[in-house]
Write a structure and sequence with these properties.
The complex is a heterodimer. Chain A is of the alpha+beta class. Helix content of chain A is 49%, strand content 20%. Chain A is built from 13 helices and 14 strands. In chain A, strands 5, 6, 7, 8, 9, 10 and 11 form a 7-stranded mixed beta sheet that branches. Chain A has a 4-stranded antiparallel beta sheet with strand order 12-3-2-14. In chain A, strands 1-13-4 form a 3-stranded antiparallel beta sheet. The longest helix of chain A has 37 residues. The radius of gyration of chain A is 29 Å and the shape is elongated. The two termini of chain A are 30 Å apart. In chain A, 38% of the residues are buried. By secondary structure, chain B is α+β, with helices and mostly antiparallel strands. In chain B, helix 8 runs parallel beside helix 11. The longest helix of chain B is centred in the last third of the chain and has 44 residues. Chain B is elongated. Classes of the chains: A alpha+beta, B alpha+beta. Chains A and B meet through helix 2, strand 5 and helix 9 of A and helix 2, helix 7, strand 10 and helix 8 of B.
């Protein structure tokens, strides 16, 4: 049966090549855009190396100070946490295997033969290398001993090695950044700039920075990472962390202030920022998914309409075929089913083409280096998303024409169809 | 004539309704692109009022500005200021915080005669005029004589002048209720986010270089000779590190900051235009298919019309008119709905000018689009031989 449908579909597609081409063009273009968008989002939020423990990791990305009044909640300060605050609240949390405090990346300058080189430097602690699993090309991460002794050591990425030392082994050699000298202990693969938590060109210990953790301010420029024993421990960790945050002494800021900081994934953090400006401790990731879904539907409105119109035309053209089948007793459901199969075959073909186009476009974007170190790739997650979207697309654009077709009066259909 | 066409369209209402809906959505897509394009073109045409070629910015990355700023730091930075000024390749040095074209902004509320607006601002020292080549359109620039005043002079941009003072002459007027800040000059629509940035209310606040103040200095701007020596940036870094060994700094040509702003502005615009263009190509191809099909199906009718004496020309016109009728219905409906938007408060940032330019843009493009996709199928229809078509029946 299905084989017959497919055969008919093939004949129909080949008979009106122009229609088939226009249909394919629309489907392919629409799906390619959606695939490129999802590949980029996956690149930012998905758990690829070095964030292999992402599913078990919670981060403290933001500290908000706000003021509760009768009219509601007013935003005061929205910033990152200080090392002092993170140490106070992350110490010995139940259900947590490992914690790390990492700085925000910032620009540093170096000069090589009068040529200015700008790199991003990030201060981290030794636990950072345990929570993140970097691919070391040579050398090793800096150790707890080196960290405690405040040794001027650094781990650099491949691109930075090439800039400073050429494409040669460099462990043990030194380089200068912002007038300070660091000895290289390890070289890692480049981490894309869109991966906000691990990204940097150069990673050095906090202990090389004389200003680290010198005062009792609550806001600063640091991110806290907590590796949980399992995801089941997340609610417990969040609860305990938030209660510790509530006990912090914030009288120095404003007596009515409330301080809000939540352990969350990077995606949760972005969702919370968008939907509550960081003023609530709730989880808003579901809303973010819904918003993304609505955007996707909006984008697909025009392509779907276009396809419905083309399908209507195609059906009109086949009215004599439909008339004959109806006259010989084919039930409406069969005809609807056949048309839907045809349509889904077409969208799937478009989906495959789109996958190919998305692959090429992403490779081109990656190779231009517009976004430093970005390596956009397609993976099974994106492939499955694409298959899902193509299926929904095919069904939506096929249902209305198929329904109209099934309601066609056989007599009219045989005569050439009523408009 | 129109009534006759309307009846023809009405007879195929289900089919034409879908087509109209497609035109409706296409019109909205084109309108959005038109709005974006109009806004950008208007911005780019407005003069900036400053010159930034051969200007470098030198930023100091204080870890915590408020707690670290003190008289020692002030003296160190002024020492760096003087040292840089002595470099042979340097024409002028000035204070500018936060830096023009940078990411950071400061803003505050200004009041004049119960009229209150919020405005962005940045601090500039007296030499900034030399560094940026600032062109005054009214009043005067800051000078050392202003040190003796018990209020702070400011220079405002055209937009702020118009919105705060209306038709009044702003020179000498206070902008705070206590009179501690007064206008001394007006410049063009200066905007700190570059030519492509949104035009915003802005004022330049005078920063004195003769004595310490609690306002931290964390950015200098330097104008060099046209071709500074290769090691210019390194020299500047050395000067800074001699005076402040642990200070993290940024040196960049302002051109680079501006290019980054331009990229931020242009990338979303480009993506929108590319996607909209693809959507329109898709719609055009789709319409060709649909019109073609509907002409094929109307062979008998067209044959009959030809047999009854309709010329090729009138037939051509009639069929195109039918298409335009559907297109007009779809786009007029969209236009009517879109015009309501600023009235009911959605998208209230749209000026009437933007609105009408964008509507015009969409109408022209949608006509062009439907004409181009209708032309070929309609031409095919006029080639139908009456005898053949009637025979088919």
């Amino acid at each position: 049966m299905l084989k017959n449908y497919l055969k008919t579909a093939w004949v129909v597609f080949m008979r009106r090549k122009f229609f088939t081409f226009v249909n394919l063009f629309g489907i392919t273009f629409t799906l390619a855009i959606l695939m490129i968008a999802s590949a980029m989002l996956d690149h930012i939020f998905g758990g690829t190396p070095p964030e292999v423990n992402q599913r078990r990791t919670l981060g403290i990305y933001r500290v908000s100070m706000c003021e509760d009044s009768e009219e509601g909640r007013d935003m005061g300060i929205s910033a990152m946490a200080s090392a002092y605050m993170l140490e106070q609240c992350m110490e010995d949390l139940p259900g947590v295997e490992n914690t790390s405090i990492i700085g925000m990346f910032w620009q540093v300058l170096s000069f090589i033969d009068n040529r200015k080189v700008t790199s991003y430097l990030r201060n981290v602690d030794a636990n950072f290398w345990e929570i993140m699993q970097f691919e070391f090309i040579e050398g090793r991460p800096f150790t707890h001993d080196e960290y405690d002794n405040g040794a001027n050591v650094a781990v650099i990425n491949e691109a930075t090695r090439d800039k400073f030392f050429g494409n040669t082994e460099c462990v043990g050699n030194s380089f200068e950044a912002n007038g300070k000298s660091y000895r290289v202990v390890g070289v890692v693969e480049n981490v894309p700039i869109l991966r906000f938590t691990p990204f940097a060109d150069i990673w050095v210990p906090h202990t090389t920075d004389p200003g680290y953790n010198q005062n009792n301010e609550l806001v600063g420029l640091y991110i806290g990472l907590m590796l949980a024993e399992s995801r089941d421990a997340f609610p417990m960790i969040k609860e305990e962390f938030i209660s510790r945050v509530n006990n912090l002494d914030i009288s120095a800021y404003h007596p009515n202030n409330k301080i809000i900081s939540v352990p969350e994934t990077f995606l949760d953090n972005i969702a919370r920022l968008i939907f509550s400006f960081g003023l609530s401790t709730g989880n808003f990731t579901k809303q973010l998914y819904i918003a993304a879904f609505i955007l996707m539907i909006l984008f697909m409105v025009l392509p779907t309409l276009n396809m419905v119109n083309l399908n209507m035309s195609r059906i009109m053209e086949r009215s004599s075929e439909i008339g004959v089948r109806k006259a010989f007793g084919a039930p409406s459901a069969t005809l609807v089913g056949q048309f839907l199969v045809e349509n889904i075959v077409l969208t799937s073909a478009g989906g495959l083409l789109a996958l190919l186009i998305a692959y090429v476009v992403l490779a081109v974007i990656s190779s231009t280096g517009v976004i430093p170190y970005a390596q956009f790739t397609l993976n099974i997650r994106i492939f499955l998303t694409a298959v899902g979207i193509a299926f929904v697309f095919g069904t939506f654009s096929g249902v209305y024409p198929a329904w109209r077709m099934s309601r066609m009066n056989p007599v009219d259909a045989l005569r050439g169809g009523a408009a | 004539m129109i009534r006759h066409l309307l009846r023809l369209v009405w007879n195929r209402k289900r089919f034409n309704f879908l087509l109209m809906l497609e035109i409706f959505v296409s019109f909205i897509v084109l309108f959005s692109v038109g709005v974006l394009a109009e806004i950008f073109v208007t911005r780019v045409k407005k003069p900036l009022g400053i010159h930034y070629d051969n200007v470098y910015t030198l930023g100091f990355d204080f870890r915590d500005l408020e707690s670290e700023w003190n008289e020692t730091k002030y003296n160190q930075i002024m020492e760096i200021f003087d040292e840089i000024e002595r470099l042979s390749s340097v024409e002028a040095v000035a204070i500018n915080c936060p830096v023009t074209f940078g990411m950071a902004v400061s803003s505050r509320n200004l009041t004049y005669n119960d009229n209150s607006v919020s405005s962005q601002y940045s601090r500039f020292s007296d030499d900034a005029r030399e560094v940026f080549g600032i062109e005054m359109i009214q009043g005067e620039w800051f000078s050392e004589e202003h040190d003796a005043l018990d209020w702070t002079p400011i220079v405002i941009n055209r937009m702020l002048a118009e919105e705060l003072f209306g038709d009044e002459d702003p020179i000498g007027k206070p902008v705070l209720e206590d009179g501690s800040m007064r206008v001394v000059g007006v410049i063009e629509d200066f905007r700190s986010s570059g030519e492509y940035g949104q035009i915003k209310r802005f004022y330049l606040l005078r920063q004195s270089t003769t004595h310490y103040s609690s306002y931290a200095i964390y950015n200098l701007v330097i104008r060099t000779h046209p071709n500074p020596p290769e090691d210019f940036q390194e020299n500047v870094m050395d000067i800074v590190h001699t005076v402040m060994p642990d200070m993290a700094i940024n040196i960049d040509p302002l051109e680079k900051l501006k290019a980054r702003n331009r990229q931020f502005a242009l990338v979303p615009l480009t993506i929108t235009i590319v996607i909209a263009a693809f959507l329109m190509i898709m719609v055009a191809l789709g319409m060709i298919g649909v019109f073609w099909q509907s002409i094929t199906r109307r062979r008998e009718e067209i044959g009959l019309r030809r047999a009854l004496g309709s010329t090729k020309k009138t037939l051509y016109q009639n069929l195109l008119m039918e298409i335009f009728l559907i297109v007009n219905l779809g786009s007029a409906l969209a236009a009517i709905i879109l015009v309501q938007l600023p009235v009911i408060g959605v998208l209230s940032f749209l000026s009437w000018k933007t609105m009408f330019v964008a509507l015009g843009f969409s109408f022209v493009l949608i006509y062009l689009l439907s004409f181009m996709s209708g032309m070929y199928p309609v031409w095919l229809a006029t080639r139908i031989q009456p005898a053949e078509a009637l025979h088919y029946e």
